[in-house]
Every structure is written in C-alpha cells, then in structure tokens.
Design brief:
Mean pLDDT: 96
Low-confidence stretches: none
Shape: globular
Helix content: 10-25%
Number of strands: 9
Number of helices: 4
Distance between the termini: 15 Å
Structural class: alpha+beta
Radius of gyration: 13 Å
Length: 125
C-alpha cells in the first residue's frame, strides 16, 4: 500500500491535499478503508458547516462497524462528494481519487499532520 507523497495524514487515518486557494480535499486513507471493510453508508458534513480539527464531522458505516470521520483541519465545508454518498464503495475502490469525502476552506491546521512516510511508519507500528 503506498500513500501519495503530496498528501498529509492524520493519526485518525484521514488524508488532506495541499490547499488550493485556501481549500483542501479530505478523504480516508487506503489503510482505513481496508480496516473498515466494505463501506455501505457515508454521512458527511453539509456545505456551509464548520468543522474543527480532531473532532467528529461524519460517519462511515461498513459491513463490520460504524466509524467516526474526523476533520483533519478546522474550516468551512465548501463541497461534499455526492458520488461517494450515492456509491459508498468508492471509498474502498479509490480512496485517494474518486473516493474523496469533502472539501474544506482551511482556517486552522494542527501541527501534528504526518507526511506520507511518517504515516506509513505510523500504520506499520
């Protein structure tokens, strides 16, 4: 499993793209998608909602369990991926591409986000 080098990662297994015009894309990692199993339902924050880094902002339900989705940064939701709401399996089949979850206008970013190499080491431990 390889984690894209251009992304940053939270210890709660979310990934974050570099912000373009202040807006970053968020999803869950391949590691998290594999651990969850087949995702069958996704509950995402609504456009306009404010999320806080480290706090729950949605849920992912799989055939195994229900897991909270955590915001890796603080900001305002600018878009949600309706494709993943309609077809939650995208989280499993393309976690770093079509399975992205939401976009957020970043107002604050915690200092504990990991690089791809740091995240790989974190999940290997």
């Amino acid at each position: 499993m390889s984690n894209p080098q251009q992304l940053r990662f939270s210890k709660e297994h979310e990934w974050l793209s570099a912000a373009e015009d202040g807006v970053a894309t968020v999803g869950i990692t391949e590691h998290a998608a594999n651990a969850l199993g087949d995702v069958v339902f996704v509950q995402l924050p609504a456009v306009g909602d404010t999320v806080t880094a480290g706090e729950s902002c949605g849920e992912l339900e799989s055939t195994k369990s229900v897991s909270d989705l955590y915001a890796p940064v603080t900001g305002e939701i600018t878009a949600v991926n309706e494709d993943v709401v309609e077809d939650p399996s995208l989280v499993n089949s393309a976690p770093f591409e079509g399975g992205w979850l939401f976009r957020v206008r970043v107002t604050d970013e915690p200092g504990d986000l990991l690089s791809a190499d740091e995240y790989t080491a974190f999940t290997a431990g």
